Amino acid sequence: MTEQRTTPGKSPSGAPEPEPIRWFGTSWVDRGADYWVRRAVVPIGALVCAAAGAAVLRFAVTGVEMSKSGGFVNGLLIAAIAVCSCLAAVRNWKLLTEGRESLTGWMAEERSLGAVWLIGSVGALLAYFLRSLVEAPGEGVKRAVYDQARMQYERRRAAKRKR
């Protein structure tokens, strides 16, 4: 995955350009027809992927149950999946509502907690689904950065005109 910039890009004229959002591009700026079609399709896709992930996890739990390893191990596995899903959901929600800069400490560690985020992918997808019902996931953060950059650009432009 490519790392996204935290400040909006600049066009050749110096005006800020909006940062694209995955699945939405820059259609979130003017919220045209393309935006609303994507706003309808993205939650459905997230829900389908979450259901597929839940089915895979169910197969894993069934495999452990078939090994007759005992109720304690089965309970421990289910608890681990639930905890990982909750952690991944909270992390993804925070990422989508507050931006990558808000992730601190253990939530920001990508490599060391990779297995937790993978096992908790169902929770992360459900958080993505819920957030996509409100807005394009990450739109609020991108819009705030873009609006701030646009206001600064307009102030600089107005100051140049006064000279």
What does this structure look like?
It is built from 5 helices and 2 strands; from the N terminus they run ββααααα. With 163 residues, it is an all-alpha fold. It has one domain (24-162). α1 (33-66) packs antiparallel against α2 (71-98), α1 packs antiparallel against α4 (121-134) and α2 (71-98) packs parallel to α4 (121-134). The longest helix is centred in the first third of the chain and has 34 residues, at 33-66.
Q: What is the percent of helical residues?
A: 55-70%
Span of the ends, CA to CA = 45 Å
Mean pLDDT over the residues: 86
The fraction of residues assigned to DSSP E strands is: under 5%
**In total, how many domains does the architecture comprise?**
1
Please work out how many helical segments DSSP would assign.
5
Question: How is this fold's topology laid out?
Answer:
Blueprint: E1 9-10, E2 16-17, H1 33-66, H2 71-98, H3 114-119, H4 121-134, H5 139-162
Antiparallel strand pairs: 1-2
Helix pairs in contact: 1-2, 1-4, 2-4
